[in-house]
Amino acid sequence: MNQLRAELLKIRSTRTTIGLLVGLIALALLFTILTCTLSPNAQLLTEQDQTSLLSFGSIAGVFAALAGVMLFTSEYRFGTIRPTSLFNPNRAHLFATKITAGVLSGLVFGLIGEGLVFSIGLMILKIRGVHIVMTGANVTELLLGAIIGTALWGAIGVAVGAIVTNQVGAVITLLAWGFVVENLVFGFLPKVGRFLPVHASDSMMGPIEDKLLSGYAGTVVVVAWVLILSVIGVTLLKSRDVS
Amino acid sequence: MSYVVQSDSLSKRYGDVLAVDDLTFAIEAGTITGFLGPNGAGKSTTLRMLLGLVKPTSGHTTVFGSSYDHLATPALRIGAVLEATDFHPGRSGRDHLRTLSQAVGIPDARVDEVLTLVELQNAAKRRVKGYSLGMRQRLGLAAALLGNPDLLVLDEPANGLDPEGVRWLRDFLRDFASGGRTVLISSHVLAEIAQTVDQVLIINQGRLVVESTLEELTARVGGVVRVKSPQLEQLAGALQREGIVTTKSNDHTLLAQGTTKERVGDLALAAGVAIHELVTEGSSLEEVFLDLTSEAAPQ
Questions:
Q1: pLDDT (tens digit, 0 to 9) for every residue of chain B, 299 residues total?
Q2: What 8-state DSSP symbol labels residue A130?
Q3: What gap in Å lies between CA A188 and CA A190, rounded to an integer?
């Protein structure tokens, strides 16, 4: 618990996290206001249309993953991995603590991101007189899926940061994977692409795309990705020298 | 004998480079030990192996009888400063310490205490990127002191310090060790720590060259003791009768070769000669160090 407090303080005590939060809020507001205002009514009729539009808050996953990546890579970049390792020589424990911190910070990103998109988007749609066809179950799945998915992306970020300790390398790896590689794979091979982490976490929010997995299957797949990356990350962390 | 640090046949290989080669030494409690060697001699690698950061290729090392990572909360027994740059530049000095202290349950009051101890209390809330090198060195020291440790391990702590900073560090370490605690301090400049340490470990090319007290080292390799006396002729005679080579430096000063100031003092007392000054020449220590490290280098 002490070590978790220390990790959370690391997140709070620099401006990086504030910068990421400001970026998330700005992007979420901009997208929500523009799309909910400008989308023609004909594209907002079905449950899938509305869920898809209001699921943009899951972009918080990108920010949560970046914040997670920083938990390890900034330690290597600034050399604080040395004092951190001296105060916590059990590296498996250090990894578990950082993963937990990544999940908790991801929850905050998810709550803010999806909370803003959903509340403001829904308000705009109602002002426009759009008939809301989403059921209570849809809304619950969307909100839980977006928020839990974002929290899991925080964990994925931490694990990626433990694997690729170079900060620039880790950020580029993460963004290239999320925005390029997965979209290419899903575009050409959707039956394979839906098992990749971005699309699996998208499926956690409900019916936003036909070719995705079910919400439960998507959750299991994302958790599996967290576990696989964590095993690789902790193995490398334990085997590497801190020079 | 109570050893705080023990290293047994410690080796570390990076590819083709043998950074540390079969290093065996022990450090007693309550001593200040200088860990000396030129740049690239293997000092930092050795200290990192001691602290569990780098895995030895062979051999092992213990601190307080156990490997570092098997100690229960080692930060409460061992404090270490390995680099003067191990800070997030955007974090305040106080928050840097709190990220460490909270990890082992040390209260914030102790953070403020060590900040005062290293004279950084007024800069505590400033971000580290605005700190001078000397302030960063002291912040590193503050981090090492958080757990009120019995052993301090410092890797080149005087690097980049101005003379005032070096003097501050020297006074601080003397004060720290006066309570029976132990210090292991590395440097590539003997003169930097010669006035602080009780004993020295000198390594070169990863191998131990010398393990001795500073005085033994000086005497062994032909150190020079400068002694001032109003009875110079009597003193020279007393020293020469014991086989010590002396050179008259001026009307009141004699240089005694290959001995220690303790021996010169004892012989002067036995001869009833007054002494006004007795100093081991610092420059000769540096020569000793350079001789030893160049002798050990492979041809």
A1: 678 999 999 999 999 899 999 999 999 988 899 998 888 889 999 999 999 999 999 999 999 999 999 998 999 999 999 988 899 999 999 999 999 999 999 999 999 999 999 889 999 999 999 998 888 988 999 999 999 999 999 998 887 777 888 888 888 888 888 888 999 999 887 777 777 888 899 998 889 988 888 777 766 655 678 899 999 989 999 998 888 888 887 788 888 877 888 889 999 999 999 999 998 775 556 777 777 777 544 43
A2: P
A3: 6
Partner-chain residue, chosen from A15, A80, A87, that has the shortest CB–CB distance to B87 = A80
Helix (H, G, I), strand (E, B) or coil at A228: helix
ipTM: 0.87
Partners of residue B88 in chain A, C-beta under 8 Å:
10, 13-14, 74, 78, 80
The pair of three-digit structure tokens given for residue A171, joined into one six-digit string:
């950020």
Average pLDDT by stretches of 10, chain A with 243 residues: 91 91 94 89 83 88 95 95 94 96 96 94 89 87 94 96 95 93 92 93 84 90 97 95 89
Of the candidates A14, A87, A242, which has its C-beta nearest B103's C-beta? A87
Q: With a CB-CB cutoff of 8 Å, which residues 72-131 of chain A face chain B?
A: 74, 78-80, 82-90
How far apart, in whole angstroms, are the C-alpha atoms of residue B96 and residue B99?
5
Q: Which of A9, A88, A241 sits opposite B55 (nearest CB)?
A: A241
Task: Collect all residues with Cβ–Cβ distance below 8 Å to A213 and sequence separation of at least 6.
Answer: A194, A195, A199, A200, A203, A221
Contact check, Cβ <8 Å, B104/A2:
yes
CATH for the B224-280 domain, from 1.20.58, 1.20.1070, 3.40.50, 3.30.70: 3.30.70
What b/e string do you get for A28-63 counting C-beta neighbours within 10 Å, with b at 16 or more?
A: beebbeebbeebeeeebeeebbbbbbbbbbbbbbbb
Look at chain A and report how many structural domains it folds into. Answer: 1
Which candidate from A2, A10, A242 shows the least CB-CB separation from B53? A242
Sequence letter at residue A107: L
Contact list, A2 vs chain B (CB under 8 Å): 102-105
* pTM exceeds 0.90 for this model: no
Q: Look up the CATH architecture of domain B3-214.
A: 3-Layer(aba) Sandwich (3.40)
> Residue A215: which domain range?
2-239
Q: Which residues of A touch B83 (CB under 8 A)?
A: 79, 82
Cβ proximity of A113 and A24 under 8 Å: yes
Which residues of chain B make contact with A94, given a CB cutoff of 8 A? none
Whether residue B85 and residue A79 make contact (CB cut-off 8 A), yes or no, is yes
Give the residue on B whose Cα is nearest the Cα of A80.
B86
* CB-based contact B53 A86, cutoff 8 Å: yes
**CB < 8 Å to B86, chain A:** 78-80, 82-83
Secondary structure E strands in B188-260: 199-204, 207-213, 224-228, 246-250, 253-257
Where along chain B do its domains lie? 3-214, 224-280
